[in-house]
Amino acid sequence: MNAMIWQVLQIILVVALAPLITGYVRWVKARLNGRRGPSPIQPYRDLYRLLQKEAIVAHSASWIFRAAPYVTFASVWLAACIVPTFTTNMVLAPAADLIALVALLAVGRFWTALAGMDVGTAFGGLGASREMLIASLAEPAMLMVTFSLSLISGTTAPGQIVAFVLAGNVGVEVSLGLALAALVMVAIAENGRIPIDNPATHLELTMVHEAMVLEYSGRHLAMIEAASMVRLTLFIALIATLFAPWGIAQPGAGPLGVLVGMGAFLAKTFLLASALAVFETSIAKMRVFRYADFLGGALLLGLLATIFLYVSEAV
Amino acid sequence: MNQQFSYDIAHLIGATVLMAGFSLLYQRRLFAVLNSFAFQALALAAAAAWQAHVQDAPHLYFTAAIALLFKAIAVPFALHWLVERLGIHRAVETALSIGWTMIVGVALVALSIMLVLPVTAAAAALTRESLALAMSVVLLGMLMMITRRNAVTQVVGFMALENGLILAAVSAKGMPLVVEISIAFSVLVAMTLFGIFFFRIRERFDSLDVAYLESYRGDRS
Amino acid sequence: MLIAGALLSLPLLALFAVLVGRRDAAHSITYAGCFVASIALLAGGLTYLGGHDASPRLVLPLGLPWLKAHFRIDNLSALFMLMINLGAAAASAFAVGYSQHLPQRRRVTPFFPLFLLAMNLVLMADDAFIFLVSWEFMSLASWLMVVSDHTEEENRKAGNVYLIMAAFGTFCLLPAFGLMAGPGGDFTFDAMRIKDLGLMGGFLVALLAIMGAGSKAGLVPLHAWLPLAHPAAPSHVSALMSGVMTKVALYGMIRILLDLHGTLSWHWGAGLMLVGGITAVMGVLYAVLQDDLKTLLAYSTVENIGVAVIGLGLAIAFKGDGQTELAALALVASLYHMANHSVFKTLLFLGAGAVISATGHRSLTVLGGLLKRMPWTGTAFLVGAAAISALPPLNGFVSEWLILQSLFKGPAMPHWAMKFGVPVVGAFLALAAALAATCFVRAYGIAFLGRPRSTDAAQATEVSFGMRWSMVVLAVLCVVLGVIPVTVTDALSHAVQPLTGVQFAVSADLGWPWLSPVSATRGAYSGTILVMFGLALFAIAIFTVHRLGTQAIRRADPWDCGHPEDIPQTQYTSQSFAQPLRRAFGHTIFQARETVVMPEPGDDAPATHKVTMFDPIWSGLYAPLGRVIGWIADHVNRLQYLTVRGYLLMMFLTLVFMLLVVAVRQQL
Amino acid sequence: MSLDALIIALSDNPLLLILAIPLASAGFLAVLPGWRLASWLNIAVSGATFAASLSLFSHRPPDTRLLFIDDFNIYLVALTTFVGFTTAIFSAGYIAREADSARLSDLHLRFYHSMYQAFLFTMLLALTANNTGVMWVAVEAATLTTVLMVSLYRTREAIEAAWKYFILCSVGIGLALFGTTLVYLAAQPVMGDGADAMAWTLLIKQAARFHPDLLNLAFVFLLVGYGTKVGLAPLHAWLPDAHAEGPTPISAVLSGLLLNVALYALLRFKMLISANPDTLAPGPLMILMGLSSLFLSGFMLYRRGDIKRLFAYSSIEHMGLITFAFGMGGPLANFAGLLHMTMHSLTKSGIFFAVGAITQNGGTKRLNEIRGLTVSHPVLGWTFAIAVLAIAGLPPMGVFMSEFLVVSSTFARQPLLAIPLIIALLVAFAALIMRLQAMIFGAPPPMPRHAHGQQTTFGTVLAYTPLLLHVGLVVVAGLYLPAPLVRWFEHVAKLLG
């Protein structure tokens, strides 16, 4: 019964928290740039305003164009519900593991990319093709991270991994570090942050994600934006949960434990968000065709992470 | 007369056939080739007759007669006539120099002796050397067909080969069908000559060099 | 009885098609007959998949006199009968309409039933002779259909390569069976099962079986014929060849390696797994760069075969290492993927066929915007594309999930080769899966979305009833197979149990909808639950959005960053979409080079952009082979033009040589 | 002695009938004017011979010193008479169309028919003779008759082919005779003088006591001698041209029958060798020649421009395969060899029937001028395709069965020997398939004026019937072999060791 409650709480939490995190990152970046910047809750207002505007759909667009925002949002949302944030005791936990998580993100991407090509403009295709290039390298990298985690903990279910780590059978491992690095690179790529993409730009040579959704407006755009916000939350939560699970509530923990878990989660989340902001302000965007090297690096790190397990075993 | 003597005579004649085979290889002039072939045929006839006498197998006399009349007389004359009629130039065109031909020939004889003598230890003594000799004659005939260019010499080589076969056949004690076989061969030879002559009168080929005859050689793709 | 009747009806249908092939109706009737027959065979397969071990046998006085012809349907055969005849039924139903406006259809229809017959016989064969006869006859029938449109030069080339490679495969399997049968020549499978091949024998059999069956299945580098032959055939045949015939090949591999060949060491599994990984990646890399829709699908078949073979290799490795539980898991995963692939690849090829019959084009660059003109085809194709891209909740994801799960267990084996090999293969597999998604986003986006790039595409109309529904049924099947995974794995475990010795079962402590191999805590997946929650969230999202905001929609011209062009050519083409991938992957592997010629200012010549690529495997392996044969042939051919004297010399030398041999051997 | 043998034999013996019919008709046809009647008579006579040969199945005549029938030659006799019969049917149609195109004079045709029967006679004699010498004479006579028929067209190419054929085979025959003499010498100490030492039926019983080394020596000469006639590389040179330049019916019987007869002679002697424990195994030599033939013909196929030479080389290939099989020995391989002999002669003669029709329809023998047969002549084209696929070794045709047995049994015993075999077979297969596709597919060339392809004249019917018959038999045999045939094969396989 508790599991059900926590699950619902989690479903609401991820959606509710997502705009705040995005806004917080923007705010911190503005501060670091020496601007006052919009308040962290600005994204809520933006989304609401977008919902009020009428949606404009191109003549050439098919039903895919209109379905895509909802499907994307739903799939990302579903993915976010699986990642344990404050407790691992949730009904959905066994329904999908990290592999399914990766696949759910892929669903969202699939539809966004199709939507980008649906109208039949040059920009849409450009965005879609670049997005898919990034994905075709980021996804394997993330799977390799999953692989190494499952090799360490013997499971692919995030909840079980957390339990395993908290049980303290994991010391500081080289491969864990590598996996973390890989996951961070993937997260950057998947969320279209600098240096891969710049969510704030509309300069056609550099934009990826924005180019895909160029044709969207009104509530459709709102869905797309929300989806990317949730995705950011998801990744932050994922990193926090998998690599720093301390404080998270285990099955059997009472409401108090859950409360502690919630606090710990929020703390970790905003810490990571600030780190992201600092990172983004401190480096520059890279050329489109260097993505391959960047993400290939991520994939390689993931592979090394698995290999290193045995190296450390062997020695 | 005692066995041994008859064997020796048989071997003597066989050796003569072989010598004739070598002299065939040795000749440089066409007519000389024909003559030494005639001589070989003569020797063969003698061998056949002697075997007929020794094994008292009368049918071998018939073989001897064929060898004498057909090979030793008719064929050489026919070839003479052909050569003159067709105006074939009289020198033997060799593909392998005569000296080398002789050396190879000797090697072949050595080979056949090495093969046959240990083998026929059990066989009737009569056949022992004769078989070795016959085999060498066969190989020499083939060698001649290979190393001599123009058709007449090749035909002669073929007939020499065949002489070797007949020699083997007659010296095989009591072998039936020798007559039929020698007749069959005579037919072959006749056909060869006929063929040569036939092509000629059809005015198809200017010379009888078989290599020339193969100028088409089939299937140009 | 049912099965026998269906099998017998097939040759009669072929005869019928030959005799009255002039009439239009004859073709529809034939295909309808094929549809009925394959449904019957499907039913037959279902009845025998029950897992009862009394698998029916039949011995006919045909084939080799002292051997006779043995037939048997065990669980494995029954399972594959399901896969095969499902695709066959769909393809036949599709062909009823499709064959009507097919050029050269008289060269296709008669062979189609024979093709079905041959494939089913391969599955039922219980001795090596019948197996190989059916196997080769299968190639023969499909070859005739590949070259059906024989006036096209490249089709004839495809036919050449195909039949020759098929013969190569047979000449690999033949000695393998010979070795298993032994000098005595008892070719029945029962005799082979109990025979113990030595170390060397086992090695040779495994190698030959992998090469022989692999060449038919399309393992790199023996795949060369596949992307040539599959597109050359009419689409309903391509669907069968890609979706179904490759499964027959894999069936052969499983039958030999896991059933007949008793003693496999884990090395073979490791090797096969690696080959599968390479095949998967190479196949999808080829696929993602293709412009011809059917060639693209053919290459993606290569990829999926690679994925399935990874699972198969793992199963062999686990079995060879004695971990039968995991072997069962890996084998189930592999079989699951085969079944899925036979569904969605058939669907996709039929979709391609629909596109061709509607537009007359196969090249992506002239298509576009078909979804609005062919909603049924477009939607069905979308489902297929999503499924083959391994997106949940469709079937493609489940099998890839299972394969990954079994792959993650790979390092549990106490061999360093596996410990280090498995992660690499895992990386290959992940890469392949991701690239497959890219490939099909590209294919679907270019062909079905955007604006039509040619008038043919603009005037396309939806295909006829039968074609439409054969696709829709397959699409539904894609969903069903994905949503109820546990039911499927239970069915598969019937076939797996005799091969691995243990029954594959999901752990009990989670229950039906949860697919949780080995143990509940090792990670689980439940398509059912996921779909329910997903739909719920989807509904909530739409509801709240429509609650909070307006529902107003305004149709307008595309904005396109402020400067819209209504020339369709300004859209991204298949080539431009592939460009980043070409730069990232093609540059090294395919030597992809781009040359852009920009005219000088004032020069009104058009700018040109040319891409040059070359196929490393073809130009590295097959072309040299052809050159070598040609060289030898040229030199041998001189023997045709010698003189009589020359030939006499050859004769003489032969004689002397043999005499010398005898002389020497007598001295010894 | 041979006289009383004759008298014994004369007491009702279907064999004599089988031999007498073609011999007599050869004489009769030689004087019969008018080719139309002659060609019909030819059919009738060959049919009669075939019928007579069928009577052998019901009861076997007793062995005589002159003739005999056993499990080995009974089916070869039947096969020979059968193919002789079908070829006669085909030749009637062929000759009719040749006569229209006026390439052959009346005299030539009369000569042709007479020689055809004479040829059948010599082959049947060679098969049934119970005497090594008689068999030799018969084979030689067969050579002569075919030489005459190959040179029938009197074109430069035909005469050259005939000349090449004549010279090479005469030498080969000569060597074979030497081998025969050696065998006699080996037998003579045991069996005593005279015909007994040449009678198969007696030799095989005593062979164990012959002098082994003499047999070895003999076998070399026999292999080279009869091997020339079989067309084993490198003794094959006569075969392609003789096939290509003669009339197509002759090519059919050359490939279908003569090669088999020569091989039969060789195998009889191999029986003697293998019946003698002390001899050197003849296997390696035969395997060597078989492989060389396989490789040579396999590569030769790629550069052929003439359709008849193409299939002549494929005959060399298959003779090589058969020789290889017998060289391997053992029940499986021998069975496969015997089966392959039968299948090959049926298939290949069928192919030559088709080739005859094709060349007459299109008026050319050049491969690159033959296109789109399945379009221009559907029945002919597809039947031809089936026949070629069969000879290429694809199921469900009979050749596949024998190739299956050869390759599998070889690999089971000598993997290293099987590998070159497989490679050679693949090379040849590829060549044949490419050629086949080029011939039966693509757009057909415009019909030359003297081509009566489309309207089915009676001649074309005559030409197609035997073709369909042969292909049908081959397809059936691929799925089902009659029991008695199998029994004979198995028995002979045992004898061949």
TrEMBL record, chain A:
One of its GO terms (cellular component) is plasma membrane. This is Membrane subunit. It is found in: Membrane. Keywords: Membrane, Transmembrane, Transmembrane helix. The keyword Transmembrane helix applies. The chain crosses the membrane at residues 6-27, 63-86, 92-111, 132-155, 161-188, 229-249, 255-279, 291-311. It comes from Magnetospirillum gryphiswaldense (strain DSM 6361 / JCM 21280 / NBRC 15271 / MSR-1). Its main location: membrane. It is a multi-pass membrane protein.
From TrEMBL, chain B:
Keywords: Cell membrane, Membrane, Transmembrane, Transmembrane helix. Its main location: membrane. It is a multi-pass membrane protein. The chain crosses the membrane at residues 6-26, 33-53, 59-83, 95-117, 123-144, 151-171, 177-199. GO terms for cellular component: plasma membrane. It comes from the Bacteria. Signal peptide: none annotated. It is found in: Cell membrane. PANTHER family: HYDROGENASE-4 COMPONENT E. This is Hydrogenase-4 component E.
UniProtKB/TrEMBL annotation, chain D:
Keywords: Cell membrane, Membrane, Oxidoreductase, Transmembrane, Transmembrane helix. GO terms for biological process: ATP synthesis coupled electron transport. It comes from the Bacteria. Residues 129-421 form the NADH:quinone oxidoreductase/Mrp antiporter transmembrane domain. One of its GO terms (molecular function) is oxidoreductase activity. It is an enzyme of class 1 (oxidoreductase). It is a multi-pass membrane protein. Its EC number is 1.-.-.-. The chain crosses the membrane at residues 15-32, 39-57, 72-95, 107-127, 133-153, 165-187, 217-239, 251-273, 285-303, 310-329, 335-358, 379-397, 417-436, 457-481. GO terms for cellular component: plasma membrane. It is found in: Cell membrane; Membrane. NCBIfam families: PRK06458.1-3, PRK06458.1-5. This is Hydrogenase 4, membrane subunit. It comes from Magnetospirillum gryphiswaldense (strain DSM 6361 / JCM 21280 / NBRC 15271 / MSR-1). The lineage of its organism: Bacteria, Pseudomonadati, Pseudomonadota, Alphaproteobacteria, Rhodospirillales. The gene is hyfF.
